[in-house]
Structures are given as structure tokens and as C-alpha cells.
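Example record

Each entry pairs one chain with its bound ligand, copper (II) ion.
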Amino acid sequence: MNKWIAGLALAGGVLLAGPALAQMERATAPAGTEVYFISPQEGATVESPLTVRMGLKGMGVAPAGTQADGTGHHHLLVDTPLDEVELDQPLPANDAMRHFGGGQTETTLELEPGEHTLQLLFMDANHLSFAPPVTSEPLTITVE
Ligand SMILES: [Cu+2]
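C-alpha cells for the complex follow.
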């Protein structure tokens, strides 16, 4: 193998490894970053569908895939404790783990009557948690 081919093989290896490493690398959110519910309030009794408003301090909301420092998008955990989330992997998207990849800060949620927990999780462009994770307090609400 001549030097030119060896160099090309090395460059190819780096290019292949790059995206996989980048995806797993958890960024640290700026100090003081906070995600919180504007509504509903802890302990609220609400009707379904309900409006959920998501607040953020210290960072900016951007659509998923936007690779800009200091930005990410909201995620809402519905009846899902944070310790059931694999924080070293991109968050799956389903009814229990909702993504607001369009950069939304408000949503309408349909829930069955009864008690529910909601928790916000602010994550980066690749749906990966910051380290440490940026989360709200879990909220317990009662749906009539
Ligand atoms: Cu996401």
C-alpha cells in the first residue's frame, strides 16, 4: 500500500467514526439553564384536551436538527419516570415520550381521566440529553 492509499483509508475511517461519536456525545447545557411548565400547575385538576405550555431559561428553542450552540427542543414525558429514560441514547418518539421537533413551546394533550404525571426534558438537536439532563420537576395533575 503506498502512502496516498494509506492516507485515504485513514481519512475514510475518521469520516465513518465521526457521526457515530458525535451522536453519543452529550453536551453540557449553559449554567443556569432551566426548563419548566408555564401551565398546567402542579396539582391542577384539568379537562382533556389540555394545553401544555413549556418554558425555558438560559437556552433557545430551535427545530430538531438545528446544529447551533445553546439550542435544543422540548420533550414531554407522559406518565414516564425520568429513570426509565435511557439518557445516553437519542430519545424514542412515542405517546409517552413526545418530541416538539418543530420548536413548539405549546401543545394540546389528550389524556384519559385520572391522575397523570408530566415532565419536561430539554434535549439537543439530535434528541440526546444534555449532561446533566435539563428537566423540569415532574408534575402531577388530575384529568376529569
Ligand atoms: Cu426530539
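Residues 64, 73, 75, 91, 99, 101, 123, 127 surround copper (II) ion (CB under 6 Å).
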